[in-house]
Design goal:
Number of helices: 2
Distance between the termini: 22 Å
Helix content: 25-40%
Structural class: alpha+beta
Oligomer: single chain
Number of strands: 3
Shape: flat
Strand order of the largest sheet: 1-2-3
Order of helices and strands: EEEHH
Radius of gyration: 13 Å
């Protein structure tokens, strides 16, 4: 994504990594961060496992993930 702006957004007082795509005028949010908020999960590895399982299940059902994008870097 060209002309991007990396940002930390908050949802229910929890950090959600986001990137603003200037060219397409869209926010892109970290799926793992959204899953962590929705499942109230603090363990990153459990969140990754949940997402891995969900993607496999969707693929098996011939559904697809909306977009294949690169992984956002973890914020420290």
């Amino acid at each position: 994504m060209s002309n991007t702006k990396i940002s930390i957004r908050f949802f229910d007082d929890r950090e959600v990594r986001a990137v603003w795509d200037e060219q397409n005028a869209k926010w892109w949010f970290s799926v793992l961060d959204i899953i962590a908020v929705l499942t109230d999960q603090d363990d990153y590895s459990k969140t990754r496992n949940y997402w891995k399982y969900l993607k496999a299940k969707l693929k098996k059902e011939n559904s697809q993930v909306v977009s294949a994008t690169t992984q956002l870097k973890a914020c420290s």
